[in-house]
Amino acid sequence: MTATTPVRPRRRLRTLAAATAVASAVAVGGALPAAADEAAASAESVARRWTPAKLPPGAASLTGVTKPDAATTWVAGFRLVEEGGGLDFRPTVYAKNGAGPWTEIPTATGESGRINAIASTSKKDVWVVGDQKASELGEPIMTQHWNGRSWTVVDVPTPPDSMGGGLLSVSAVGPDNVWAAGWAQIQDSATPDPDGGPTHIESHHEGLIAHWDGRSWRRIPVPQPYAAWGLNSISASGPNNVWAVGNGYGDDNQPVALHYDGSKWSVLPTPPHGGVYGEFNSVVAKSPTDVWAVGRVLLDDKDRGHALVMHWNGKSWTRVAVPETAGPMYGAAPAPGGIVAAGKTYDRANGYALRVVGNRATSLGLPTDLPDGRSYAPWSVGTDPRTGTATIVGVTENPQGYPDPMVLTGRI
């Protein structure tokens, strides 16, 4: 690859596209086909099942959600700000306690960039993860930790020749056991132009995993399934069961699944998905014999992408059938008997969510539009089995054409 600046992986870093091209990310289109299990919910049923949140105004996109306890919800993402004649990103966090209003939680002073994911074990133990701070080789990746009173910035080391990178997912098992996954673009060579032009840079992408042990972040060596690849999601159910998923890039655009058994990381065989290309965007590890991965499969070179849902039973993968209208899935979270997953319809017209139990997927009836008529794009899902609810976050568009944060909460 020839590049003078970092090149972000195209598909998974959807949040960047959502912020800079929000009009297309939430483009209005036709309604879903009227199949019984796929039809969009009516305004009356939506009002009963899904409630949109009223967040403080601001040009923000939401990328993650976590519930430190049954009464508390935190959501995170990034805000677009005009600076120096251009647009920049600022970390953004909102919190809601009980029936109270949503309030913004200021992040660490002086930190810019995006928040790509959030996780917690309690209201005094919340993590957010983001991107490499600068394009200089070996710059660290930003994370921030909330201790109940204030934020602390904790850098994650990157490979010495990293031109850019980011952590796209974080999973917290305990205060001294937190996992994060993402990608790094590694510079292979840099050749100056003899005529004084731009330096010719060769680089490749590879997956990145980091672990917090209660004192510091450590970058973890992992197997390399492809020459170019990245990780999109990580999920840990305990110290001996951690899963990370993603996809290869270029000609190797196939799902990737890695597993940590407490002693080493290994690559699992690529599951058959029935298409020419595929990718995993989110993983939910409930136990060593109950793991769910969702994403996208392309049936041919012209396909825009259909939903992909896979289940690992400890020995092999099984694909779960989903409605034909279901497009790429971006987020998933645990639910009794299975998961809740969300994404965009195949035509990219509407958001949708499915409840998957065993080998059956049923619609959760997300609204076609928000009550004010705006369309939206769901990116991440959080669930709480204690209350039987799901919170879906993402982005919508304000009248000025900038992104607005979107939160939908409903029973599952």
| Continuous helix count | 3
Q: Work out the count of structural domains.
A: 1
Q: How helical, in percent, are the residues?
A: under 10%
Secondary structure: number of strands: 28
Oligomer: single chain
What is the alpha-carbon Rg in Å? 20 Å
What is the CATH class name? Mainly Beta
* End-to-end distance: 45 Å
CATH fold field value = Methylamine Dehydrogenase, Chain H
Portion in strands = over 45%
Question: What would you note in describing this structure?
Answer:
This protein is mainly beta and 412 residues long. The protein has one domain: 7 Propeller (Methylamine Dehydrogenase, Chain H), CATH 2.130.10. It has 3 helices and 28 strands. The chain has a 4-stranded antiparallel β-sheet with strand order 1-28-27-26. Strand 11 and strand 12 form a beta hairpin. The longest helix is centred in the N-terminal third of the chain and has 7 residues, at 14-20. The protein is globular, with a radius of gyration of 20 Å. The protein starts with 13 loop residues before the first helix and ends with a strand.
Explain briefly what this protein structure is:
By secondary structure, the chain is mainly beta. It has helices spanning 14-20, 22-25, 43-49; strands at residues 50-52, 60-69, 72-83, 86-97, 103-104, 115-122, 125-132, 141-146, 151-156, 162-174, 177-191, 200-212, 217-220, 229-238, 241-248, 255-260, 265-267, 277-287, 290-298, 306-312, 317-319, 326-335, 338-345, 351-357, 360-363, 376-384, 389-397, 403-411.
